[in-house]
What we know:
Elements: H1 10-24, E1 29-32, H2 47-75, E2 78-84, H3 101-106, E3 116-122
Parallel strand pairs: 1-2, 2-3
Helix pairs in contact: 1-2
Amino acid sequence: MPLVVDVTNESAVAAAVQHLLSAWERIDLLLNVAGIGVAAPFRSTTPDEYRRMADVNVLGVLYPIQAVLPTMTAQGEGHIVKYSAPPMPADRRRAGARRGEAPFRACDIASVPPPRRESAMCHRPAGHP
């Protein structure tokens, strides 16, 4: 069931989860892959670009997790997967806003009783082991 959802809109994410629950009655997997970056020299970027990046990369991780946790807790199981791009080299780092792992780790995933699962995946740039 394809859904288009703005992950920076908390109520839209909650509504999408409720829509899925009405159709499927449970949620077993959250694959959290939303993320954006700013591909421009720092001096030619705007604060609004970084604000949008932070909204997508932080709140866009947090809202879906918060929306599915009550259901996964009630089910007694669920799997949350957070996919993240690798850190950029220091000379290209964009103010650290792409670090979606922090809100992922800060979430109360431990409240989902076993057999819960959480995963964080990161791809490697070409040419790196």
